[in-house]
Amino acid sequence: MIKAMKNFTSPAWRIMLATITGILLASQSDAQTLTRKDADEIRVLARERVKGLNDLLNAIANEDLSNYERRYLMMNSYMPSNDQIFVNDGVIVEDDVDPKHKASAPGLDTPIEKYLSNFDLFYTKTETNTIEFTNLVVSDVKVDKYPFVKVFYTQHFKGKSNKDNTPYQPIARVAELRADKSGNDWIVYLTRLAFNSSDAARAVPVSPKPSATYDSLSRKKEPVVSQASDRKPVAKPEDAKEGERVFQELNKPNQAEIQNARKWGAIKLGVGVAALAFGAVTYSMLNKDYKDYKKRIDNPEGLTSYAKPGIYVSVGAMAVGLGVSLTSIFDFKRAKQ
């Protein structure tokens, strides 16, 4: 034992220990560049981006849209615009438009523009949505040259291919996303889409190289296409006054007559029940996602850490729902007086 202790205190062991300590400190320094709040925000935004991809594919496959409208949606998804979801036009996608492609293989890497064009050309158009992403699992945020996150999901193409009318099978996919800070907000964009595999899960994302056109538009900070509908709605003064009036009514029920008390009691009870239901459904969905996450990820984090901030939203909604429901009792009592 004494001999072993001497070995651990030898110069060689001291050098190795110092090296390991330096690596650990460096990794901790990288991890500390993001707060927990930042990481939670990035994860929420990443999930929304993947849902945005789901919506984009459904829109392209909608037979009610014109060719121009589909081209508009496709181009704006990877060029600077209000509808952008891909980081730039250099994004590479492992092709899944062909039903025979079910896993990673050489030769499947496709530029985003070509991938969306092939999808538009070969996927059958319908009146209703035929594409659904399920079992979304968001990894924790990691930092390499920039913060990145991966979203694992199951892709369901319920339509058919125009090539040979072959039905698609559900496939496991992974979306890679990078995060950049813009002022006080985080902006998250897709950098790659691939078939899910152990290699894809471990790989560190590489930022796609944009074209000269993209760089030029990005420097000018001008969208490819700007529409009036892209602008955020602005509240009118009369709308603000009406909102203030309703708020005052809700918070001063003692000034209302018996009829108003009964009415507000019914409204509060309805809102309370709805909030309780929302909180319960949200918690159930988060719990389901967490179970899927534990099956896919080694050494998973706890439910509370994984589901932040959604779990707080669900618990808060249930608490608010319970509180609002209880306050409705006082309104009904006053209505009986």
Word description of this protein:
This protein has 337 residues and is an alpha+beta fold. It has two domains: 203 residues; 100 residues, no CATH class. Helix content is 52%, strand content 15%. Strands 1, 2, 3, 4, 5, 6 and 7 form a seven-stranded mixed sheet that branches. The longest helix has 39 residues.
CA(first)-CA(last) distance: 85 Å
**In one word, what is the shape?**
globular
**Average of the residue pLDDT scores:** 77
Gyration radius, to the nearest Å? Answer: 26 Å
Q: How many individual β-strands?
A: 7
Determine the number of helices (DSSP H or I, runs of at least 4 residues). Answer: 11
Derived structural class: alpha+beta
Sheet bearing the most strands, described?
Answer: 7 strands, mixed
Helix content percent band? 40-55%
The parts where pLDDT drops under 50 for at least 5 residues are: 1-9, 15-32, 226-236
Tell me the series of helices and strands, N- to C-terminal.
HHHHEEHEEEEEHHHHHH
Beta-strand portion reads 5-15%
How many domains is the backbone divided into?
A: 2
